[in-house]
Amino acid sequence: MSDLKFNKIFGAVLGAGLGVMAVGILADSLYHVEQPDTPGFMVEIAEDSGSAGAAQDTGPIIPDFGTVIPAADIAAGEKVAKKCVSCHSFEQGGANKTGPNLWGVMGAKPAGRGTGFGYSDALKAYGETHVWDYETMYAFLENPKGEVPGTAMAYAGLRKSDQRVALIAYLRSLDANPIPVPAPKPAEPEPAPEAEGEEAAAETVAE
Ligand code: HEC
User: Fold this and answer.
1) Which of 67, 68, 196, 205 could form a disulfide linkage to 63, CB 3.0–4.6 angstroms apart?
2) How far apart are CA 206 and CA 188, in angstroms?
């Protein structure tokens, strides 16, 4: 092979190599433009679902009982009460079981209805300073031992707020004179636009 021929071949190989490199650099730069977009997008989704899950689980949000009790489904509450019937009867004059009969419990003093049930000292002490109103019952049904430490009620609690509200509406109905429903709280400044929207919708329907 002559030197000239060798140079030509070497040059061609070198040229091809440079071409491949150039394409590689170009492809790299194109690829790099897209890369940050993808992970950023994914992270956003992960954070979104994460914070939404956390919002559901953290902190008790006490409902406005003046609004939710009149709207509650008493029949649904009676179904939820099936979780309690192994220990409680609900009808007037019903027998005490592992737990006391629950007729007329809303508005009563805890451990204070003269049911003849052998209450724990913890519930008796709680009854000195509390009444079974919407707030205390809502807290007790979520976590009996959290609201009344030392209570003999061996029940883990109802996690779902709507189940507790329906159950409380049912318990409230088990009384010759059910306790009054509080007046709904005035609308907060923030949800005002929503209330206006509802009004506007109601007006539209009325027309
Ligand atoms: C494993 C049995 C058991 C289950 C299940 C149970 N309870 Fe009880 N409950 C008791 C006992 C025992 C007491 C008495 C607690 C004490 O003396 O500390 C009690 C007390 C109560 C009281 C207070 C009564 C009063 O006179 O002050 C209420 C209200 C109550 N239970 C509601 C419920 C509801 C509603 C459910 C169903 C979601 C339920 N319980 C499920 C055993 C149970």
Assistant:
1) 68
2) 26
Residue 80: name the closest of 175, 157, 176 by CA: 157
Q: Is 89 in the pocket of ligand 1 (CB under 6 A)?
A: no
- As a whole number of angstroms, the distance between CA 53 and CA 56 comes to 5
Atom 2, ligand 1: which residue's CA is nearest? Answer: 87
Nearest CA to ligand 1 atom 28: 102
Output the CA 67–ligand 1 centroid distance in Å. 26
> Tens digits of per-residue pLDDT, 137-173?
999 999 999 999 999 999 999 999 999 999 999 999 9
pLDDT along the chain (207 residues), means of 10: 71 71 66 54 46 48 95 98 98 98 98 97 98 98 98 98 98 97 86 55 51
